[in-house]
Specification:
The protein is an alpha/beta fold. The protein has two domains: 4-31 and 282-412, Lyase, Ornithine Decarboxylase, Chain A, domain 1 (Beta Barrel), CATH 2.40.37.10; 103-274, Alanine racemase (TIM Barrel). Helices cover 28% and strands 25% of the residues. It has twelve helices and 21 strands. The strands form three sheets. Strands 4, 14, 15, 16, 17, 18, 19, 20 and 21 form a nine-stranded mixed beta sheet that branches. An eight-stranded parallel barrel has the order 5-6-7-8-9-11-12-13, surrounded by five helices. Helix 2 (34-47) packs parallel to helix 9 (254-265), helix 5 crosses helix 6 and helix 8 runs parallel beside helix 9 (254-265).
Length: 421
């Protein structure tokens, strides 16, 4: 469920007509719904009610501080994967004890930053990382709480570029070596081993891969406790998928996911951490764009939009599907046409959809890409010297620009010309 629906023939974000925002902000822009963000966070929080738990939003999905502040006010922790994300979380008012630092390549500078500013735990992924973190923590007179990320060799059945839990993926340590690596960590003076971390991929639409991975984590927990480790926290990652098309079979609900966690891990008495990102913010955001031209080709028609692959790269990178709808509700009897929906960037890859059946549209019409809140704005670039597009947040009848569109001058002035030129 989201809060982008037609009222009186016009698409609204909560109680605000999208046309009103487009007139004020210009197109293209990202638009987020506070009500949808809040609802999706609460679904996860309520799914784990009665268990000691923390829902840490995976902020790589969308990291605008207004989004972080909205979720933090509901009690969310944050899962960060860089020093920049750590600082963004703190700037949004998230305390260090609610921040988990993940990622396979943390630098020494990032370790120092998080140790100095406070951290709930580091999810470490290799022996060299553990040794470096222990040395840095010892130098700083601190002890770093860690969970070790294990790779359970489970096929997440998702896109190859976002699968992370198979043996050939770069993430974590093989679960077969876990007892050996935990023994090493226990002997390092700057570390406090608090738990186990696992994450098998993104956009999972079936609970069975989770179930297989968590069963392995449960068995490992018992083994590590038998070895003398105080395993008191299980970080289960994120990855639960969203429906990108209205016709798709719906992925499992957070309530189903929570029930499966209770079934597989509830008997262990561990604190549970989960790190959803896409499911919280994906359907809470849309990309609004305007038709520049309708072009007739040799064997197809093209809708040429003012948004491009630099604004939303998911279709070009992952062959991802986004429903594209007109902002003005089509009249009855508008059976539509088949279009290739494209942007203005000078690459054939700048294509959002091929052979898409849509209502007939004209130059100047507004369209909205549904389910664009996750991995949209955060993956955008200034390719072709196209400025980053604005982000807008709606709350009931109010809206605010939460990231402004830079001017061409601001973009160009970030370059520095050497003296010899």
């Amino acid at each position: 469920m989201d809060h982008f629906i037609y009222h009186n023939g016009t698409l609204h974000a909560e109680d605000v007509p999208v046309t009103e925002i487009a007139a004020a902000v210009g197109t293209p822009f990202y638009l987020y719904s506070t009500a949808t963000l809040s609802r999706h966070f609460r679904l996860f929080d309520e799914a784990l009610e009665g268990m000691d738990h923390l829902v840490c939003y995976a902020m790589k999905a969308a990291s605008n501080q207004a989004i972080l502040k909205t979720l933090a006010s509901l009690g969310a922790g944050m899962d960060v994967v860089s020093g920049g994300e750590y600082l963004r979380a703190q700037a949004a008012g998230v305390p260090g004890e609610r921040i988990v630092f993940s990622g396979v390549g943390k630098t020494h500078e990032e370790m120092r930053l998080a140790l100095a500013g406070g951290i709930r735990q580091f999810n470490v992924e290799s022996e060299p990382e553990m040794e470096a973190l222990s040395a840095i923590a010892t130098q700083m007179g601190k002890v770093a709480p860690i969970a070790i990320r294990v790779n359970p060799d489970v096929d997440a059945r998702t896109h190859a570029k976002i699968a992370t839990g198979k043996s050939e993926n770069k993430f974590g340590i093989p679960i077969s070596r876990a007892r050996e690596v935990y023994a090493l960590a226990a002997g390092l003076p700057g570390l406090d081993v608090v738990g186990i971390d696992v994450h098998i991929g993104s956009q999972l639409t079936d609970l069975e891969p989770f179930r297989l991975a968590y069963a392995k984590v449960a068995e490992l927990t018992e083994s590590l406790r038998a070895d003398g480790h105080d395993i008191r926290r299980l970080d289960l990652g994120g990855g639960l998928g969203i429906p990108y098309t209205r016709s798709n079979e719906a992925p499992p609900l957070p309530t189903d996911y929570g029930a499966m966690i209770r079934e597989t891990l509830g008997h262990l008495g561990c604190e549970i951490e989960i790190e959803p990102g896409r499911l919280i913010v994906g359907n809470a955001g849309i990309l609004v764009s305007r038709v520049i031209y309708v072009k007739s080709g040799e064997d197809r028609d093209f809708l040429i939009l003012d948004s491009a692959m630099n604004d939303l790269i998911r279709p070009a990178m992952y062959d991802a599907h986004h429903d594209i709808i007109p902002v003005e509700e089509p009249a009855p009897g508008n059976d539509g046409r088949i279009y290739d929906v494209v942007g203005p960037v000078c690459e054939s890859g700048d294509t959002f959809a091929r052979g898409r059946q849509m209502p007939e549209l004209n130059a100047g019409d507004l369209v909205a890409f549904r389910s664009a809140g996750a991995y949209g704005a955060v993956m955008a670039s200034e390719y072709n010297s196209r400025p980053l597009i604005p982000e807008v947040l709606v709350h009931e009848r109010q809206f605010a620009v939460i990231r402004a569109r830079p001017t061409f001058d601001e973009m160009i002035k970030r370059d520095t010309i050497p003296e010899w030129l």
